[in-house]
Amino acid sequence: MRWRRFDGRKIELPIVDAVAKTLVREKEAGNKLKVCIGTDSQVRGKTVEFATVIVFLREKKGGFMFIANYKTEQRMSIRERMILEVGRSVEIAYALCNLLDEHGVALEVHADINTDPSFASNAALKEAMGYILGMGFVFKAKPDAFASSACADKVC
Question: Among 67, 82, 109, 126, which residue is least crowded by beta carbons within 10 Å?
Answer without folding.
Answer: 126
